[in-house]
Structure prediction request, 103 residues.
Amino acid sequence: MNNVKITVLKREFYPDLADEFLSEGASVGACPIQSVGDVFLYVGDGEKPEGLCPWAWIDLYSAVKALASGGDKNDWYKDGGTRISCCTDGVRPVVYKLEMVRE
Prediction:
């Protein structure tokens, strides 16, 4: 099993969608849990890295597990050990870079 480094690349926010759909509207702002540059390390056993948003963990887990198991080669990425993924919050999504730490 490989470790997987998880890095926050971007925090997006769509105030028009927040105003239309969220009870507090655009005043909620971007994700309050993660910041650009945050880094987490998955070391196995299905355990969420400390400090990583629990909702994002649910969204990222399958890709993290695939990378921990050795990655998956495909034509979309230059490196089979790297993935770009995001949480499924459609109003304030966070974009993550997942990197297999090769041993």
About this structure: The chain has a mean pLDDT of 92. The two ends are 9 Å apart (CA to CA). Strands lie at 3-11, 39-42, 82-86, 94-101.
